[in-house]
Design a protein that fits this description.
By secondary structure, the chain is an alpha/beta fold. It contains 15 helices and 21 strands. The strands form five sheets. The protein has an eight-stranded parallel β-barrel. A five-stranded antiparallel β-sheet has the order 14-15-16-21-18. The mean pLDDT is about 95.
Length: about 525
């Protein structure tokens, strides 16, 4: 691959900065904490890091409500601290991506302050405003993703403003070319500072139906919030969004080797990815929702999702993800509260063997389970509002465990912003480093194998029938072939392989391969090369 295409098959390590490492003693992680752990990250063998928001923010949604796109919130440090991360990461051979949130801002952003003034502001049309209905109710039936209507009345302006998320997160009007131009300049600001790419948060929400038509009802027996009862065809995934994606791509193309991964959600995110993510002319890749909120985990789920991607989006390049800051951690989501280290290792081996690029969430390399956060310690507004019907996001955002030191596992010197789950202490970096067979060391070896294999990074994927509980596929690049086998069941399985194979390395869990016959323990995995 050329340096221009480094992102194809890359593994990007997601860092949620509030929870990575606190160096200032306030119980909240910061940029210096990321800087101090860059050697650890480089030693993992990942290609880059993605840092979740660290921009100026009142923290109503913990940084996803930005009040200044071009500065660092003092809670996390300074622009100089960020520049130091860029310099050190690049010296260590690690690329740097940042989150960019272009669908909405904080209600404390200066732009919104000007827009909400009565008609005289030049930014009057920078947000989505609408008159009340004659009876004073909101302009239409649109619902937010967190809870309640997507409209809030503003007395100063005498109109409603739209927000797909919290009321403190008003939606930008990206139909306005001035807003688009300002967003493109914001992207240039960070590219000029040396970032290698961006993850575009909630980018499929960036346009709304200008006719303000009601969303139709949707039958959803699992609905927990009003928004779950609508098909959001007029608020998510409008086809015209593709033109904005091409404008962002034009900016990226001014900086060789930079790329964007779009978080593209909705009822059928793959359909939107076909429109918005084209490596040649639009976003290079789409953040994949085929697995993040799906279950139970079965070979059929994986195979059907990948084959769907290949059939419906053959020219695209997916970014695969099992866990992140918004979802229940994969070992718990799919394996239950008592999921074993072997199960977590199988998940990491599977993720790092799939077709596409990969995002690995902090703690995934340790096999962390979803943390138990009691109600009185919850801070996620979505979790608090909808308790107990949704688990919320706090359990995936608890502090990274570095040492065995109780009670905060080396994350901070005082009570952190979220509690450390006692189960995480025994899974800390210190507890696993250098221990053969630990999830950390197995994941390091998997990453090393992937980086050395063109087949695992960018090769084709070819599925092999192997029974109900076993997933089997080949990755192929030129003359290189790798057979990948995963036993999803609790019991040992025997698999008949096509051809003769031998183990790829010592990272595979106890398995016996006699040429074409493989015996694999429950929740085991095996990677093989032609014998």
């Amino acid at each position: 691959m050329s340096e221009q295409d480094w992102w194809r098959g890359a593994v990007i390590y997601q860092i949620y900065p509030r929870s990575y490492l606190d160096t200032t003693g306030n119980g909240v992680g910061d940029l210096k904490g990321i800087h101090d752990k860059l050697e650890y990250i480089a030693d993992l063998g990942v290609d880059g890091i993605w840092i979740s928001p660290f921009f100026t923010s009142p923290m109503a949604d913990f940084g996803y409500d930005v009040s200044d796109y071009r500065d660092v919130d003092p809670l996390f440090g300074s622009l100089a601290d960020f520049d130091a991360i860029i310099e050190k990461a690049h010296r260590l051979g690690v690329k740097v991506l940042i989150d960019q949130i272009y669908s909405h801002t904080s209600d404390q952003h200066a732009w919104f302050g000007e827009s909400r003034r009565d008609g005289g502001s030049d930014k009057a049309d920078w947000y989505v405003w609408a008159d009340a209905r004659p009876d004073g109710s909101p302009p239409n039936n649109w619902q937010s993703f967190f809870f309640g209507p997507a409209w809030t009345w503003d007395a100063r302006r005498g109109q409603y403003y739209m927000h797909n998320f919290l009321p403190q997160q008003p939606d930008l009007n990206l139909w306005n070319p001035e807003v688009r131009a300002e967003i493109c300049d914001t992207l240039r600001f960070w590219l000029d500072r040396g970032v290698d790419g961006v993850r575009l948060d909630a980018i499929s929400h960036c346009l709304h139906d200008p006719q303000m038509r009601d969303n139709p009802a949707r039958e959803n027996p699992d609905a927990k919030k009003p928004g779950d009862m609508q098909s959001m065809v007029h608020t998510v995934g409008l086809p015209d969004t593709a033109e904005f994606m091409r404008e962002l791509r034009a900016v990226l193309d001014e900086y060789p080797g930079r790329f964007a991964v779009g978080e593209i959600g909705g009822e059928d995110p793959l359909a939107q990815a076909v429109t918005y993510a084209d490596p040649e002319r639009s976003l290079q890749t789409a953040y994949n929702f085929s697995f993040l909120f799906k279950g139970p985990l079965t070979p059929a789920l994986i195979r059907e999702a990948i084959e769907d991607q290949l059939v419906r989006h053959p020219s695209g390049w997916p970014t695969q993800v099992f866990s992140n800051h918004d979802a229940v951690r994969a070992p718990t989501r799919w394996g239950g509260a008592d999921a074993s280290p072997a199960y977590a290792q199988m998940l990491n081996a599977l993720l790092l063997s799939l077709y596409g690029s990969v995002c690995l969430y902090q703690g995934e390399e340790l096999g962390l389970c979803q943390a138990d956060v009691p109600y009185e310690r919850l801070v996620d507004p979505e979790a608090i509002k909808n308790w107990p019907h949704t688990l919320g996001r706090d359990g995936a955002r608890t502090p990274m465990p570095w040492t065995r030191e109780a009670p905060w596992a080396g994350f901070a010197g005082l009570e952190p912003w979220l509690p450390v789950d006692a189960r995480h202490v025994d899974l800390s970096v210190e507890a696993q480093a250098g221990i053969d067979g630990s999830t950390l060391e197995v994941t390091r070896a998997l990453l090393k194998n992937r980086k050395a294999s063109a087949a695992l990074q960018t090769g084709e994927i070819r599925f092999v029938d192997a029974g109900e509980n076993v997933l089997c596929f080949e990755r192929v690049s030129g003359d290189e072939r790798v057979m990948c086998v995963f036993n999803f069941g609790d019991a040992e399985s025997e698999i008949e392989l096509p051809g003769r194979w031998c183990g790829m390395s010592d990272i595979t869990l106890p398995a016996v391969c006699d040429g074409s016959r493989l015996r694999l323990r429950g929740h085991g995995f095996w990677l093989g090369l032609p014998a």
